[in-house]
Write a structure and sequence with these properties.
The chain is of the alpha/beta class. It has 9 helices and 14 strands. The longest helix has 15 residues.
């Protein structure tokens, strides 16, 4: 199965060499040179791993790693850092900020491939494990393949907007998600053109999946912060 990889590297020749090599090994590589553009790409949710160069035209890779890890939807994205810096301090800081591995330049492409495969195995990061399989929360099932939601085995009728929102909540269960973050993360999904507030759609979801929508146990509100989808239900 093809692995969707985002490569953030400002050295075009090196990036093309990496993309060609990894392409032969079953990776589909999308190349970016600017950090802010890479973050926008990652928000789409299609990438299964990130190769991140530390020296970027529009910022520092360490700061970018911190920004990525601060976003609930990207908190578990496998990240492999690349750097021409040989400093042990940079490697330590990179790993402390959430990188899964660190590779110094110059490097052998075979080593890059081996390290990528290792972090993908460790993280279980194949996209199908999140987006194309069943998510279960007690009596609630979210079937991402069939675009169906079932409670106690009974299918619940949801609009495309509502399903996209519930899918996003489920993938980030246990994390506090602000209204602004939810709207931003839903760009490019069937819910990307929300014409009503997040609160209204949350209310509709609660009516569909809560035993008592007035006393929700699945989609919880944190005043002034946003919403949390409960990891432990029923």
């Amino acid at each position: 199965m093809t692995v969707q990889l985002l490569l953030l590297e400002d050295d075009r020749r090196l990036a093309e060499m990496i993309a060609k090599y990894l392409g032969r090994a079953g990776f589909s590589v999308h190349m970016e040179t600017l950090g802010h553009r890479a973050v926008e790409c990652l928000k789409g949710g299609k990438f299964e791993a990130l190769v991140l160069d530390l020296t970027l035209p529009d910022g520092d890779g360490l700061d970018l790693c911190r920004t990525i890890r601060a976003q609930p939807a990207l908190s578990r994205l496998p990240i492999l850092m690349l750097s021409a810096r040989g400093d042990a301090a940079d490697r330590i800081v990179g790993l402390e900020l959430g990188a899964d591995d660190y590779l110094s330049k110059p490097f052998e492409p075979r080593e890059l491939l081996a390290r990528l495969r290792a972090i993908l195995r460790r993280s279980g990061a194949a996209r199908k494990s999140v987006d194309t399989r069943m998510m279960r929360f007690g009596r609630l099932e979210i079937d991402c393949d069939a675009y169906q939601v079932r409670l106690d085995g009974e299918a619940k009728s949801l609009t495309a907007h509502q399903f996209a929102l519930l899918n996003l909540l489920g993938r980030n269960a246990g994390h506090v998600l602000s209204r602004d973050w939810l709207l931003d993360a839903l760009k490019g999904t069937p819910a990307g053109s929300f014409d009503r507030s997040i609160d209204v759609h949350i209310s509709k979801l609660r009516a569909a999946i809560e035993d008592d929508p007035k006393r929700p146990q699945r989609i919880l509100t944190l005043r002034g912060a946003g919403y949390v989808f409960a990891k432990s239900q029923d």
